[in-house]
Amino acid sequence: MGFDPQRTRTRRPSDVVYVGAAIAVAVLLLAWALFL
Predict the structure, then answer these.
(1) Where are the alpha helices (DSSP H) in 1-36?
(2) Backbone conformation region of residue 12, classed left if phi is above 0, alpha if psi is from -120 to 50, else beta
(3) How crowded is residue 19: how many other Cβ atoms within 10 Å of its Cβ?
(4) What are the angstrom distances between the C-alpha of 30 and each of 5, 8, 17?
(5) Could you tell me which residues come within 8 angstroms of residue 17 by beta carbon, excluding any fewer than 6 positions away?
(6) What are the tens digits of pLDDT across the range 1-35?
(7) Cα separation, 23 vs 28, whole angstroms
(8) pLDDT the model gives residue 2
(9) Which of 13, 26, 28, 31 is the most exposed place for a label (fewest CB within 10 A)?
(10) DSSP annotation of 5
């Protein structure tokens, strides 16, 4: 893995979009599994 502990974590708009999309997909899959 290319993980560098000295690297400063910068929050980019793309990171927020990716996390939001992943959460949305997870919620949709969970709802689909529960209600269908």
Answers:
(1) 13-35
(2) beta
(3) 10
(4) 34, 34, 20
(5) none
(6) 567 667 676 778 888 899 999 999 999 999 999 99
(7) 9
(8) 65
(9) 13
(10) T
